[in-house]
Amino acid sequence: MLYQRSSALFKEAQEVIPGGVNSPVRAFKGVGGTPVFAKSAKGAYVYDEDGNRFIDYINSWGPMLLGHAYPPVVEAVIERTKLGTSYGMPTEIETEIAELAVSMVPNIDKIRFVNSGTEACMSAIRLARGYTGKDKIIKFSGCYHGHSDSFLIAAGSGASTFGTPNSPGVTQGTAKDTLLANYNDIDNVEELLEANKGGIAAIIIEPVAGNMGCIPPTLGFLEGLRSLSDEHDVLLIFDEVMTGFRLAKGGVQELKGIDADIVCFGKVVGGGLPVGAFAARNEIMNHLAPLGPVYQAGTLSGNPLAMAAGLAMLTAINSDKELFHRLDEKTEYLNDGMSKVLDEYEIVHTINRIGSMISVHFHKDPVVDFKTAANGNNEQFKRFFHSMLKQGVYIAPSAFETWFITDALSYNDLDETIAAVRQFAKEES
Ligand SMILES: *Cc1c(COP(=O)(O)O)cnc(C)c1O
């Protein structure tokens, strides 16, 4: 048995950890089977407890843009650890990474560091509400902004009026302040704004969606959100937890030339340590405690080890002029290779891609929103996942996730991946 030790560890974990995991998607519920327990990782590869090697397309769900155990990050954390791991006092390194982030990202003056993307998005909407004095927010079906109450709202039949919670424990009181819109549907957003005139604090969006597969914005959609936000005096929040420092130095704001009012970060910004951040212009950020009345805090926020990892990561990204071009080329190569093979075996598919994000959908139509993403052939995706895994390629255990391309991937790795897709295609026909 290939995963003997992983199976044993999973069994043991389930006794003391709910479902055996500390974050649900790791449990393979979407694809079935036993989760693989990681032991170590280096560059483009992750190694499990049974000694299997996988080409890794999850990369800790995004942070490892430059590959696992990236030496400058490892070095920075080791050196910093020797100086103590946390003080609860301000440190110079927090200013250093803040200065660098502000220099890389358009349209922000100040940034505050927190411990996760969830915290960043949760704090961003509190700030937006505090700044505007309004309560409601608009989010998009299929966009994920972490697990805080306001965002765990799914579309029901009443989607265009009030959201309904999709987790027990989220109160109706909270749910009624979150309105749902369809991704890439600007008319829907306008309707919501018109129907709730004067009541909406913010529109929050993944400007390139990555939590229902990879779904880029259609032409004019983000521009439309920007102008509607201005017209209705609503703050536009870009949740760039996934895309920030990944699709460009300055994220989607830079890539698409659109300014958001508040930007959220996570994943890459921490270089693999627990970090999130949110940022905006002075007029907005100065509403935050201790300068202003909107409260937000954290015992371990701006933790020196996390900041050291993030600073090493951002420094590397900032100094490599060719990085995003290389990533783009690798992703395109993989896209073309997989597409050719799937075409050859007449497997119906759509591949979405932008920069270093890519997703394969077993669906003939364009995948542009949650509904079309959900229409994919999930049974085929499960077979795809397990076939790839068996062949040493680790993709996300869900049809609703993007793959993350890292700079550590060689063309040899990409060829191996395409060969694995060919094997899958053979098995299917
Ligand atoms: C991952 C993610 C989050 C949540 O970040 P955590 O660090 O998991 O709390 C929020 N928004 C987006 C777009 C994400 O991809």
Return Rg in Å.
21 Å
Low-confidence stretches: 155-161
Mean pLDDT rating: 95
Bound molecules: pyridoxal-5'-phosphate
- Enter the CATH topology name of the largest domain: Aspartate Aminotransferase, domain 2
Residue fraction in strands: 15-25%
CATH class of the largest domain: Alpha Beta
Main sheet? 7 strands, mixed
For CATH, the homologous superfamily of the largest domain is named as Type I PLP-dependent aspartate aminotransferase-like (Major domain)
Number of β-strand runs:
16
Q: What is the domain tally?
A: 2
Describe the structure.
The chain is an alpha/beta fold and 429 residues long. It has 14 helices and 16 strands. The chain has helices spanning 4-16, 71-81, 92-104, 117-132, 172-175, 186-195, 221-231, 251-256, 282-285, 304-319, 323-344, 370-374, 378-390, 411-428; strands at 38-42, 45-48, 53-56, 110-114, 136-140, 153-154, 164-165, 178-181, 200-205, 235-239, 262-265, 276-280, 350-354, 357-361, 393-394, 403-404. Helix 2 (71-81) runs antiparallel to helix 10 (304-319), helix 3 (92-104) packs parallel to helix 10 (304-319) and helix 13 crosses helix 14 (411-428). The relative contact order is 0.16. Mean pLDDT is 95; it is low at 155-161.
Quick tags:
binds pyridoxal-5'-phosphate; seven-stranded mixed sheet; Aspartate Aminotransferase, domain 2; 16 strands; 2 domains; Aspartate Aminotransferase, domain 1; globular; alpha/beta; 429 residues; 38% helix
